[in-house]
Amino acid sequence: MPTSLISRNVAVIGAGASGLVAARELRREGHKVVVFERENQIGGTWVYDPRVEPDPLSLDPNRLIIHSSLYSSLRTNLPREVMGFRDYPFIAKTDKTRDPRRYPGHREVLFYLQDFAREFEIEDMVRFETEVVYVGLVEGSKKWKVRSKKKRGDNDVEVASDFRFFDEIYDSVVVCSGHFTEPRVAEIPGISSWPGKQMHSHNYRVPEPFQDQVCVILIGSAASAVDISREIAHFAKEVHVASRSVADETYQEQPGYDNMRLHSAIECVRDDGSVVFQNGRVVLADIILHCTGYKYHFPFLETNGIVTVDDNHVGPLYKHVFPPVLAPWISFVGLPWKFEYSNWLALSAGVKGLKSGESKCIMLISKGCKLVGSGSAVPTLQVSNDDLAKIVDTNDEWISVRTGIRNRRVLTGKDSLISLAAEAASKALQMAEVEPDDVDLVLMCTSTPEDLFGSAPQIQKALGCKRNPLAYDITAACSGFILGLVSAACHIRGGGFQNVLVVGADSLSRYVDWTDRGTCILFGDAAGAVLVQACDSEDDGLFSFDLHSDGDGQRHLKATIKENEVDHALESNGSVLGFPPWHTSYSCIQMNGKEVFRFAVRCVPQSVESALEKAGLTGSSIDWLLLHQANQRILDAVATRLEVPPERVISNLVNYGNTSAASIPLALDEAVRSGKVKPGHTIATAGFGAGLTWGSAIIRWG
């Protein structure tokens, strides 16, 4: 957007994080900004109010609305480093009144926002205790009528005569009103006749009111459910957590709490006070506490149906911000649950329009993705360390001590990598109970395609996908599966795909120099696959990722193109073509093992730590560490750096060797099918290899 030549009058609704930074950017562009804030201070959702609403479920439209949803003990689930604005970092202060922790309490976030407002003199633009009750287009123009109300006194009982109303006209409106006030409540069969008490976490502040309650049930699996269940467990006799993101048969005691159990979702409730879970368990409960999130809610906004809220999706919106038909005169900031999008929000002031039309109508996608099926396949031919000792100067002990490998599987001339990949993909579909015709996308992660132009379409063909879904290859060596997983998530979150098959398959044995003791002992062939499926955002199973490459490191691990003999059939044409026609192929794998080891133990832990930090987790809070199966010494070194005990490291290296892009899904599938990895388990996974490429992802299985 060019620098504004015309100063616009802009109304910003809300003085939380989004509203503050939007107001600052708009003023920087030379616009006249008024920020409407219904509370008596800035901070939005970070303003703690100990009061709760009289309706514990917050369903009564005539209730006194308490806008705060904070509970007293709430701490951030992200480190302060990623919560601050880019040009105003969230730095720990030494003042005794401040909270220096990396994951501070809610009061520290409020202080940070207040510091930000003071630093940039934003409070001068704010009208406190002024609530917007209507925003609508002025007939025959692109301007907006904004009606607001300001209370005359301090009476908690709202009477119309207690308010003064103001009507004003603005050129543009920026909606920054947040999304933590209007609760979503779970639909439970039989709830209308259930005699117990229900409440929403919106009205939870402290655990003491649950003292001596016999049985409390919480619904949900996100941060608030985790925090609140742990608090209540110190007061109530029994706590049961119901989650739809775990398998139907789930029934687990929660670590550290002998009175708390994790269940699958609630099947129904009965008029005798009992609650029936999908796992078949039945308990008598006093309270059901809904930790089920919030709805987007704009009761003041009238756009004649141009902007709607449908199934908690706001749209149509371009870039999650601008309604194409009304852009740039109205915009929404902060919808995607982050502090982003605001440093360029001055577009809403209106010096440059956006093209309307379906191509720009991108709805806000509140989709998540989850891993719902896995499969794997390996060749029948097994090559042991003793077999290799017959062709190179080595022995079983030397190989196993240095690598952890004892066997590997190798494709023979009769075998096909495509058939292995298709077998693994088919098993993943069967586990997920998804038909091939329901697959929307196939991603083949491989560095050894059986066709120069890609192998993924052949997997689609082998599976019998009659709808001809998109299929393409991803080449990133041993990091390929991680990149494929992240790519699948991006496709799903973009709104166009429901079921994405991510297949990792490689046959590096075809590129091994079987006279080179340094490489022929390492590699095997295999295929692994997972089905990634769209889900509600609250059930999202890809928490974070971290991806990198370094072309300078290519010299340490490579299989480069080489020229072979001249094609004598075409040699006579060389003078005409201006170059001698050569056949080309790839060299055998060349590796500097020491440098690759140094690279892996340096970069992989950093990447995993970065992904964990983005997810608000630590190494001690994950269930499993699943690394590319390259070398047992690398696995041990990375686990030690991350302080993950050996019993929580998944490894099948001993049986298959380094299978490149197949190694992670192969190990995951074995762990799932053996019962080691269970639905709801959190896994830190990382790939690393040629390129050099490396990356990590924090995922939840099931």
What would you say this structure looks like, in words?
The protein has about 700 residues and is an alpha/beta fold. It has 3 domains: about 10-180 and about 295-350, FAD/NAD(P)-binding domain (3-Layer(bba) Sandwich); about 190-290, FAD/NAD(P)-binding domain; about 370-560 and about 590-700, 3-Layer(aba) Sandwich (Peroxisomal Thiolase, Chain A, domain 1). Strands 8-16-9-10-12-11 form a 6-stranded mixed β-sheet, with helices on one face. Strand 9 (about 215-220), helix 3 and strand 10 form a beta-alpha-beta unit.
Short note summarizing the structure:
The chain has about 700 residues and is α/β, with parallel strands linked by helices. Helices cover about 20% and strands about 25% of the residues. The strands form ten sheets. A six-stranded mixed beta sheet has the order 8-16-9-10-12-11, with helices on one face. A five-stranded parallel beta sheet has the order 3-2-1-7-20, covered by helices on one side.
